[in-house]
Design a protein that fits this description.
Length: 160
Amino acid sequence: MQNNHTIIFPEGDSIEPMQLADLIAVHQLECASQQEPWSLQHFADELDNPVATVILYWHCGQLAGFLCSWLIAGELQIQNLATLPALRRRGVAARLLEHAIARSRVAGLTSVWLEVRASNAPAIALYKRFGFSACGKRCAYYPDGEDALIMTFDAVRSEE
């Protein structure tokens, strides 16, 4: 990915920052798409967190996905990424990830980190397409005991 990369959206689609008025819709999407969903309060807290950004992907007026991230000292930490199940495999998550990385590059991005369920093959494949690589594992990370893969992306090297 390059700094001058333009994200192409299908007609009627956009990415916007989350507002307080979006809280219920975001939580509903979270509950529909995650095995261990965040609480409504968790999302409210992210709105008040000075290092957090939650971006929303809108598809023809419908909330299709979101990405919550923290940018701290050049390191982007992907906290949560979800796509409405009916709209998966249509580029929603990829556009959200691309947008978050491009926005963070402007603020001095050096690396991106995330945890992903070891069994989530579609998400792992998406991250690998972006240049992420697995660099570790958190054993029994999730409440159900599943392991998480730690994946990282070197943003400085990807620009060379």
